[in-house]
Amino acid sequence: MNYRIDNLQYCNWSREVFQINREANLDAVHVTIVYHEDYKEFLKKIEEWDIHFKKNEDLIFQGKNYKDIERAKLEKKTAIFFGFQNCSPIEDDINLIEKVYEKGCRFMQLTYNNQSLLATGCYEKNDSGVTNFGKEAIKEMNRIGIVIDMSHSAEKSTLDAIDISEKPIAITHANPLFWHNAIRNKSTELLKTLSDSNGMLGLSLYSHHLKDGKNCKLESFCEMTARTADIMGVKNIGIGSDLCLNQPDSVVEWMRNGTWTKKKNFGEGSKKKPGFPKQPDWFIDARGFENLEKGLSKVGFDKLEINGILGNNWFNFYKGIN
Amino acid sequence: MNYRIDNLQYCNWSREVFQINREANLDAVHVTIVYHEDYKEFLKKIEEWDIHFKKNEDLIFQGKNYKDIERAKLEKKTAIFFGFQNCSPIEDDINLIEKVYEKGCRFMQLTYNNQSLLATGCYEKNDSGVTNFGKEAIKEMNRIGIVIDMSHSAEKSTLDAIDISEKPIAITHANPLFWHNAIRNKSTELLKTLSDSNGMLGLSLYSHHLKDGKNCKLESFCEMTARTADIMGVKNIGIGSDLCLNQPDSVVEWMRNGTWTKKKNFGEGSKKKPGFPKQPDWFIDARGFENLEKGLSKVGFDKLEINGILGNNWFNFYKGIN
Lengths: 322, 322
Description:
The structure is a homodimer.
Chain A: E1 5-9, H1 15-23, E2 28-34, H2 39-55, E3 60-62, H3 66-75, E4 78-84, H4 96-102, E5 105-109, H5 132-144, E6 147-149, H6 155-164, E7 170-171, H7 188-196, E8 200-203, H8 218-232, E9 237-239, H9 249-257, H10 289-298, H11 303-321
Parallel strand pairs in A: 1-2, 2-4, 3-4, 4-5, 5-6, 7-8, 8-9
Helix pairs in contact in A: 8-10, 10-11
């Protein structure tokens, strides 16, 4: 059986988006449900998702483990797995890790761009690695079954997390630094360490992570995938598109600024280009998986490898964690 | 006019404690009102203090600026200034700095022992300094008038804070490392940088910070004070006793562990000595200021210098910040 999985989306959720994901034959999507929210605000998000699930039960349901991906395939629906882009919902309380798991959280970034209580984000000047609380949180996440996601974390913190975690970790949405020099992209050394520990990289389709931005060529992306497979092995690579369909620019402003600064921070953007960037024309939305399939074939991947990259590798990773 | 100020106490507050502080002729005390509390829990503490002020209006009132210390002297009362030992009440929101000021907060540690969102605590393995959010928070604290307190912070973070802050900062309760090698005590280099920037050190009477612990001799403490004055200048030294009168041991356990770990952390204590340490017999409570006065005289300080150390230096510092 072959699965199609997009292991990171943060769309302005609507029936239209769920339909597009179905048209793309996605059996599972890992969706970001919080950025900077605290525990109470996280519970509000859960209520919002309860309504999505009720109103769109013909298209989606909540995923809890890999068996829900198998079920989604059979029922021609998309299993929705919850994840956090920051650890803010657990606040300063290790006991909340079990609580957020009970509500469905399966991935949690130890940091967004800034320092968190657990580790250092990639936009900080200095990186002190995983903190005292971070070490305890990783142990608890391992015990409970929440995947450690280091997509937005700084390098030493990520290497620390790989070292401390007894289970493989994930970088759900980022690209290699050798291809495009962006603060959010990852060094070859880090990618090697990640794959040596059976961790997964979800390749991102977000323009700020792409060579030539929105003008990035499909061929270039697929060649980069081939070179990344040389480094990491083809089984440790998947897709984490970072699609932010239909989000207003106020959302990216909030993602970057939260409530931590009074002056505006532009993150990956700039004063001139403060909003969400445009997508490359071959990946406007998840239906672009079809283009990826063709493009990956052209650079020499075989069917087994392509199905791995487009979903089966993530499926196997999910299988390993539950 | 001479003032007596203890610039750090965290007692189990009661009429008895306020009476003792009056017997000690304290015109002002900086009291810790939160350790790990969030904003809502901080508001609860404010309610508790409102009751203390009502029930004990013949002994104490809330201090807002240095004029309240002058008033306290005249009225033979103690002005109570609020402070935080961690930045948890501002959560991840820079706007809360103004809110906590409005309720009376005048000192805030950027960290307790662990990493915070603002800086690194002295019990972390690595110290990445003041964070992105920390830089913004310092600017805002400067603007609003909350003193940056780095008593429990790591060294680079403290040096960063001194460098970034446009106003003098404080280490309200710690001792020099040259005298007693404890994680919480401060290096000579740091103390020099602190005094060069007109910052204040509050010498601590907490046994874990004292040479020979509870058996520390008054003479030794006063000689250390003289050597510290050689390094920092006598005008940058005061007292921050760190008195924790009548607190049950469950409180020190909570101070150290908060909710960040499932296994027990003993902080400055140990498995064998997990509780609050005993005070040296010459400083059981604030009435020990009288012993300090005699002791400081014996090691050669003159009256002006002694009155500076026992309160006037802090008074001048308060005067500078408002």
